[in-house]
């Protein structure tokens, strides 16, 4: 698995052996499921199918990068930019102008930088160069896991080592002043270096000295008896080596425990420090430990039995021209022979088959589902890339050709025309 580096920000980044995925902070509810898939080694196509389950219109932006051998696939949508070099040429991908997404296949990728351009913690991307590293921004290495980011670099950016605390940075060699040369003195003509440092201490005075009066506060006090030499220091845990990489599999507490047991004093182990600041990266914390608790959720249903499909209160009712009435309380797929290929066992949609003698209607033609976010409480319709398209006519508005993958909110009284004489009337629930 390659080593990447990232800078903290508001977006989510999931790193796996086969794919790397970036999602905006608004997609927190979906990140846990996608992280589980990518951590299990899901490929590029499988992650893309899971990403588009709720429709492309409900996804404001993302970046998906394939890994492994062979050409590298890059998909970008929304306020993100991808730069780097591949096959000796510069690469520039901007997802802000795409109606669906921008897709590129790159050979012999040398470096990639995935940058969020609307994140306040990200750098200015108007003049972006992956070789120009800002030393004031911390680039943290990562192999796999889930983190918050504003920028991702592949391969990892190598930052200069930090100087020890309290040590001033060394001056450049050209600016260092030469050491001062001491002035010569007649007394230094023949220095006695043979006995330097071996001069004998002065002995006692030959004549006794009268003790000073108590009023003479300036008189020196009698020397105190020398203290007993200190004993050997208690055995304790040795310091953790600082040369280990921040992503080494052995943490500091394990090293302290091992050395303390060898010294025979396991009770001298210090208590582990309390991390009051979750943003403080000590270089030894394994990525994903805190994120797993943040996105943990209970599994629905009864153990040993398949989970029930996700059903909500109906937000609309569909009156199909063949006389069938369908409540919109879950995802509904309509077509000549609809299939649910991009859904999990806990989110099984309702499949509605309609007649199409002339085969003008695609097998999976369109999707209707309860809306979310700004569309909450109403139904939304999405063309699933049908061959002959879908025409929507809403009250007070003219006919509109639906764009594949773009969800449109439905107003009661709207009419959906699939072609081949099949129409769907939208009413209140």
Question: How would you portray this structure in words?
Answer:
By secondary structure, the chain is mainly β. The strands form three sheets. Strands 1, 2, 3, 4, 5, 6, 7, 8, 9 and 10 form a ten-stranded antiparallel sheet that branches. Strand 1 and strand 2 form a beta hairpin.
Spatial extent as radius of gyration:
36 Å
Weakly predicted, low-confidence segments: 119-135, 160-165, 185-189, 191-202, 215-219, 246-253, 265-269, 287-302
Number of DSSP strand runs: 21
SSE series = EEHHEEEEEEEEHHEEEEEEEEEEE
Task: Quickly list its features.
elongated, 429 residues, 10-stranded antiparallel sheet, mainly beta, single chain
Question: What is the fold's blueprint, element by element?
Answer:
Layout lengths: L3 E12 L3 E5 L4 H12 L4 H8 L10 E5 L5 E6 L2 E7 L2 E6 L7 E5 L2 E8 L23 E3 L2 E10 L97 H12 L25 H6 L22 E4 L4 E3 L4 E4 L14 E4 L12 E5 L8 E5 L7 E3 L6 E2 L6 E2 L5 E5 L2 E6 L2
Parallel strand pairs: 13-14
Antiparallel strand pairs: 1-2, 1-9, 1-10, 2-3, 3-4, 4-7, 5-6, 5-8, 8-10, 11-12, 11-21, 13-15, 15-16, 16-19, 17-18, 17-20, 20-21
Write a brief caption for the model.
The protein is mainly beta and 429 residues long. The chain has helices at 28-39, 44-51, 252-263, 289-294, and strands spanning 4-15, 19-23, 62-66, 72-77, 80-86, 89-94, 102-106, 109-116, 140-142, 145-154, 317-320, 325-327, 332-335, 350-353, 366-370, 379-383, 391-393, 400-401, 408-409, 415-419, 422-427.
């Amino acid at each position: 698995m390659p080593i990447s580096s990232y800078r903290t920000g508001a977006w989510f980044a999931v790193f796996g052996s086969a794919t790397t995925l970036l999602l905006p902070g608004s997609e927190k509810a979906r990140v846990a499921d996608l992280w589980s898939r990518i951590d299990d080694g899901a490929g590029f196509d499988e992650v893309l199918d899971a990403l588009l389950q709720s429709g492309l219109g409900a996804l404001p932006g993302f970046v998906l990068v394939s890994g492994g051998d062979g050409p590298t696939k890059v998909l970008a949508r929304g306020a993100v930019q991808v730069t780097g070099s591949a096959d000796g040429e510069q690469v520039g991908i901007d997802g802000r102008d795409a109606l669906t997404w921008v897709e590129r296949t790159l050979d012999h990728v040398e470096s990639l930088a995935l940058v969020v351009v609307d994140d306040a913690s990200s750098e200015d991307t108007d003049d972006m160069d992956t070789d120009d590293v800002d030393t004031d921004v911390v680039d943290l290495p990562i192999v796999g896991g889930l983190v918050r980011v504003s920028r991702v670099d592949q391969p990892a950016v190598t930052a200069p080592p930090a100087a020890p605390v309290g040590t001033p940075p060394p001056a450049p060699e050209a600016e260092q002043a030469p050491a001062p040369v001491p002035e010569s003195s007649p007394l230094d003509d023949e220095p006695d270096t043979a006995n330097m440092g071996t001069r004998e201490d002065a002995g006692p005075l030959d004549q006794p000295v009268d003790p000073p009066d108590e009023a003479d506060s300036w008189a020196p006090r009698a020397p105190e008896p020398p203290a007993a030499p200190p004993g050997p220091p208690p055995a304790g845990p040795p310091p953790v080596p600082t040369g280990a990489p921040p992503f080494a599999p052995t943490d500091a507490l394990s090293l302290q425990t091992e050395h303390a047991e060898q010294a025979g004093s396991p009770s001298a182990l210090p208590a582990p420090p309390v991390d009051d600041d979750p943003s403080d990266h000590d270089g030894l914390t394994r990525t994903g430990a805190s994120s797993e608790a943040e996105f943990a959720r209970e599994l629905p249903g009864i153990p040993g039995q398949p989970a029930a499909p996700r059903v909500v209160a109906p937000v609309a009712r569909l009156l199909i021209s063949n006389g069938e009435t369908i409540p919109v309380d879950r995802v509904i797929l309509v077509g000549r022979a609809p299939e649910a290929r991009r859904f999990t066992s806990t989110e099984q949609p309702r499949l509605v088959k309609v007649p199409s003698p002339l085969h003008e209607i695609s097998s999976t033609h369109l999707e209707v589902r309860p809306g979310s976010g700004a569309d909450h409480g109403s139904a939304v319709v999405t063309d699933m890339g049908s061959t002959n398209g879908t025409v929507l006519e809403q009250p007070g508005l003219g006919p509109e050709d639906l764009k594949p993958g773009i969800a449109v909110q439905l107003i009661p009284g709207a009419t959906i025309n699939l072609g081949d004489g099949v129409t769907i009337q939208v009413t209140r629930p």
